[in-house]
Amino acid sequence: MDVRIFLHSLRIAIKGEENPHRVRGKNIVFLLDVSGSMQPANKLPLLRRAFKLLVEQLDDRDKVAIVVYAGASGLVLPPTPCSEKERIQQALERLEAGGSTNGGAGIALAYKTVEESFVEGGINRVILATDGDFNVGTTNQGDLTRLIEQKAKSGVFLTVLGFGMGNYKDSTLENLADRGNGNYAYIDTMQEAKKVLVESIGGTLVTIAKDVKIQVEFTPAEIAAYRLIGYENRLLRNQDFNDDQIDAGEIGAGHTVTALYELIPAGQPIEGPAVDPLKYQVERDLSSSAKSTEVLTLKLRYKEPTGSQSKLLEFPVQKTGKSFEQAEQSLRFAAAVAAFGMLLRDSEFKGDSTYEKVMAIAQGSSGVDPGGYRAEFLRLVKRAKALQDLEDLEP
Fold this sequence. Notes:
4-stranded antiparallel β-sheet
């Protein structure tokens, strides 16, 4: 875990162990949407190529089955050892799109298939690949999530991969992954497929901690106010942190999670209407810890993949006294990404951010970029700026 604070910015970065203890093999079911909406090139054709990459990362201890769904669902490849990779690749190549989307029936069959060849002490996982357009069968999201939650308790986790645009249902897919003690990613290019299914394969397939929760307590002597940037759909109540019945996110092997906070130091004015003095209460004295050099305490709760009781880690954090320009590259680049997101959403908190400022920060903090992902981010910012310039020219 890495924590840094620089005046008005706080970055919390968590990274899962790269090489967890060896498992006894992977038992994976590919659950693939082959409905009519999957015909475009950035859907089923891209899906086939992406899953072929994934198959190449598996070894002879692993086995793969393929379940497809459209108007009906079916098992097109029974559990097959990865010593027969050519047979698996051929099954993927034969997939064609057509029909409506009976996603609920496909999910039920996929879980049934993985349970029939369950590997004790191994990785048992369903990988769902779809554009999320469930329009026939069990379309009620509550019914789907209850089914997936039930199966997650038995040790079968879920990875969800989204493909395509237009009718894409991002919120549906993310929610399904959350309930299945798994992860979610969107794939729109082969470069992204390589990142998710090759370079980050451990984080995609191997869950090392579930129901991971973060709680931050700021020192009032140092911080007057704070705002978490993003994660609006991940917020928990204070009392939920210690409640092991409350579901939270998962961390995969080598998986990284970054959270950013915007801070207002103590003594600076806070925007917004004033608050009248309290009639029945007076301000309490600060504790001795609040008067120390600590600026916050970070608490982390997590469960083992098969556990039901959480473990607690606690980290006090000191100030660094560095300026933003002196901050390490990872914080500055993360800040550029956050500002870009606020610009795209036209957030009320975007302040004086502009595409030009985002590019300047990102270019100055790109550093070593072996996968080319930071360069790709810069291309996206330039494209967004070009689109904005065109809109500004319209009468």
